[in-house]
Amino acid sequence: MNVSFRALEPQGIPVTIDRASLDAELDRLATEFKGDLQGRDVAVKTLLKAALAHGRNAARERLDKNNDGRICAQDISNQMDEVIRALHRYVLTHIHPPVANPAPSERLEVIAVGGYGRGMLAPGSDIDLLFLFPNKPTPWGDAVIEAMLYVLWDLGLKIGHAARGLDECIKLARADITIRTAILEARRICGDEGLADMLAHRFDKEVAHGTALEFVTAKLAERDERYKRTDTSRYVVEPNVKEGKGGLRDLHTLFWIAKYVYGVRDVSDLVEASLFTREELKTFIKAEDFLWAVRCHLHFVTNRAEDRLSFEYQPEIAAKLGYQVHPGQQAVERFMKHYFLVAKDVGDLTAIVCAAMEQRHAKRPPKLDRLFSRWSRSRRRALPKTPDFRIENERLTVVDDHVFVRDPVNLIRFFQVADREDVALHPDAMHLITRSLKLIDRDLRDNAEANRLFLEILTSRNAPETVLRRMNETGVLGRFIPDFGKVVAMMQFNMYHHYTVDEHLIRSVGILAEMDAGTLKDEHPLSAEVLPTIAQRTALYVATLLHDVAKGRPEDHSIAGAKIMRRLGPRLGLSAADTETASWLIEHHLLMSNTAQSRDISDRKTIEAFAATVQTLERLKMLLVLTVSDVKAVGPGVWNGWKGQLFRTLYWETELVLTGGHSAADRNDRVRMAKQETRDALSADWKESEIDSYLGRHYAPYWLKVDPERRVAHARFLQQAENEDKSVATMFTSDAFRGVTEITVLAQDHPRLLAVIAGACAATGANIVDAYINTTTDGLALDSIFIDRAYDENEDENRRAQRVATTIERALRGELWLTDAMQKKAEQRSRRTKAFDIEPQIVVTNDWSDRYTVIEISGLDRPGLLYDLTSTVSQLNLNIASAHVVTFGEKAVDTFYVTDLTGYKITSEVRQATIRRELLAVFDPANG
């Protein structure tokens, strides 16, 4: 290789800092403040700060005007160069001038390293400097460096610096890959010429020579570790523009490797090195320009070195980049789709370089072959069944560059063979596939063999998720199923979904395949039990892959998706029955999740309405499995055991209805059985009269709703409270499997009870996910509140639960003023939710329950929302029988089953309108 350190040419960029004028003004200040060192220092810093601010403002104005990210980054770097050069000249002229005949050791050169060395700086980036000496730092050199650094620090710059001699630089570069990379990017700024060239020569000879494999291996390992920190997927909806997968650091890593191994000096040299075609070079430059534009805008908007493109900044940057609203898609969603397509391009470019390196080093002389032995050992294996492909170095590749032109079905067959042989894909073959996408036309989409192979991939018992992701990365999946292609890289601007739509769908298939293989039996016992009994397995897999395929359209995506499925099913080779079933699943894929989480599933009418839609046990099984796959694939932390328990309960209750159960007689029998179970459990230490009295304290819904273990715990809890003469009491139980902690509250019943409990939970930061309201026949409330688990260890979670329970008791006894506590929480409201605009909706209906009026409230979530809603409900003189609280990212959906104070439904339209009006007012910012 041949490393060259050189000054970056301005490339025609207006620097906006006039060096001649700056030097002249610094000279003037030195003369004017002669004898007033403090005044001089203040004046110099004020001048340089103004020069930098002027340059930054000009760079920002140009960025806002033309959105050229690379120009902006280069401009800011050039401005910094000019300030450092002016400062260096000023220090040497007026503060620490060198002696008349300095010794050879008194030479100093200022060099930009790291990101600054590339000649590109984001507005908030660190300034990394190397002060280079021939041997080691000298007293005069230390004085010069100190004078420069104090000024730079006082300018508010983040300076990373090192003062070293040549020998130390080489020694450290040999030992530390990070330092080696920084020196690889070195660029001379000012000072004594020649030292940088000497460093380059010695770096090439003593560090880089013969260490290509070491460097490449270290940088790729560093990349993998970085992915772990920022999430391995390039489709995380709040990506890190610098460090995330498909971000700027990936482009930098790509160039570092090419520079170290091939000696390229500039991006354009990648073509001459045969690493890129000219089209691929254009893709590299466009990707880099876009990512720099996003990063520079992000730094300017936040006024700091912020590289995470979080929700609160995405809309503003989308507007700056000129994205417009499109039917079915917000401007911010179109911007983020572009971002993820660029991230995909970066991944493709990385694969291309790795493939080119592999091919080149496989043909190098023996010495290099040993360096790249893991790439150069060419172990080939023919595949008699598919002669167009072969296994090479344990990866699937093509026998020549014409296999897809000869038979376009090979574009699908290639992935089916990879799945069948359980091998990775060769980068060369992947590259050839991306260049052959135009062969995927209507004829291939209608080809029966191609569709058969695709279904074989999708329903494979090996690793369909991995193969589908490779198909998606090469563009084959989106071309073969154009409707899927429309959701590739599409993000949904909400805090609920962690991935783009296409990544979510592929992950859903992966989870389904894991459950199908039985590897998730402990986590999902019911799904594992019903999956082997599902007859329409192919329909289930197709519906799972395509359940969100119509996202981003004006029409409801479930309905539109069902229409797509009815059109696509016959083309894929599905039977009429499988097509209809898959369409039904897509249309109703949210039904089970919404019903289980936002309805009272102990209410008979809820179950009957759900069963009437599902109709068959086969559909119920498939809907359960699809729901679990869908929810788990949303993102980390979305699934928990509590949701699993809700889905299982809904399944079991619906199964009874579909198989003829749940008659009125059955209901009475279940109440009698529940009471008998409780009697048997208490008989060992309770008198018969005590048991009879206790069993008479609960209404029928309690016995149907509460499981046996909790019924016994409640009985002992009430007995202990009475023995201790407590009017307010709490108990708690943490449940690691379900991911919730249950807090049971005993108090005198009154309409504001749930509001007080909700306020106390909010004041302690506890998130309520469900609430069961039980009132005894003697006027006590026995309420069960389920909050999200915060700690993995039971000991930690129990301490936290104790704090929450104590706060609830204090609030109920009037010892805690909730308004003050809630005000503190309101001040801590997350800035992220301010980026979202959700129109609140209030539904008041008597159709969802035989006994209660149901109020469903949806809107933008915030700390204390449940407290405000429950307070308003109680002020409306309504009794809450049960509450069901669901949060989908920034969106809250809270459902209350209520009656008036006499126990009847709310039938007056006037009163219903009042309820809607008062609850809508809760979302008015003026009332927040």
TrEMBL record:
HAMAP family: PII_uridylyl_transf. Transmembrane segments: none annotated. Has four distinct domains: an N-terminal nucleotidyltransferase (NT) domain responsible for UTase activity, a central HD domain that encodes UR activity, and two C-terminal ACT domains that seem to have a role in glutamine sensing. The lineage of its organism: Bacteria, Pseudomonadati, Pseudomonadota, Alphaproteobacteria, Hyphomicrobiales. Residues 383-741 are annotated as: Uridylyl-removing. Belongs to the GlnD family. Its EC number is 2.7.7.59, 3.1.4.-. Residues 742-823, 854-928 form the ACT domain. Uridylyltransferase (UTase) activity is inhibited by glutamine, while glutamine activates uridylyl-removing (UR) activity. PROSITE patterns: ACT, EF_HAND_1, HD. It comes from Flaviflagellibacter deserti. The gene is glnD. This is Bifunctional uridylyltransferase/uridylyl-removing enzyme. Residues 1-382 are annotated as: Uridylyltransferase.
